[in-house]
Specification:
Elements: H1 5-14, E1 18-20, H2 31-36, E2 41-43, H3 47-50, H4 69-72, H5 76-91, E3 95-99, H6 103-115, E4 121-125, H7 138-141, H8 145-150, H9 152-155, H10 158-173
Parallel strand pairs: 1-2, 3-4
Helix pairs in contact: 5-6, 6-10
């Protein structure tokens, strides 16, 4: 099963299903498969349309972007928050469905939607996994063979992953919106 197929099906249950594609991922291997999965529409702006030459404004995701993946990829979640905000502004969804595989990204998007009063219901869908337990992902499909063979070991460390998830969840819960 395609990693995004479950997300599309969840969106189709109650609504018009639209895939809004980050223009930097226009050649994403799953974009054509998403269209084939019976989405109602695809919004795929060009990089130039999303980021004109004088583009200067960004969304700063704050403390949620600092630990875990953010510590090794400075600025990554700034880019994610900015492009997701721009896509939300362009397509104006009532509901947006994201996979829980990227837990930190999901937490940042939920916080952004609250903080910026976007009025969008963010739904998290469980991670779809391969038979060996590894998350189904286009990134995982690009792993070198030796890395791919070793990767499922990390799926079998439930106490470790549960600890990090709970620790991060507590940190997310502590990030309340500022009082006005």
């Amino acid at each position: 099963m395609l990693e995004h197929e479950d997300l599309i099906e969840a969106a189709r249950e109650d609504a018009f299903a639209l895939v809004a594609a980050d223009p930097t991922l226009a050649a994403h291997p799953d974009l054509k498969k998403a269209v084939d999965a019976r989405v109602d529409a695809v919004y795929a702006p060009t990089v130039g349309a999303m980021y004109p030459s004088q583009f200067q404004t960004h969304v700063e995701p704050g403390a949620l972007a600092e630990p875990l993946e953010g510590s090794g990829r400075p600025g990554h979640f700034r880019g994610v928050a900015t492009v997701v905000a721009k896509l939300f502004n362009a397509v104006r969804p009532d509901v947006a469905v994201f996979g829980e595989k990227d837990f930190q990204q999901l937490a940042i998007i939920r916080r952004m939607v609250i903080d910026l009063d976007m009025g969008i219901d963010i739904v998290g869908m469980p991670t779809v996994r391969e038979a060996d337990g590894l998350a189904m992902s286009s990134r995982n499909r690009r792993l070198p063979a030796a890395d791919r063979a070793a990767a499922p070991v990390f799926c079998n460390l439930p106490s470790c992953s549960a600890y990090f998830s709970m620790s991060f969840a507590r940190r997310c819960a502590d990030q309340s919106p500022p009082s006005v």
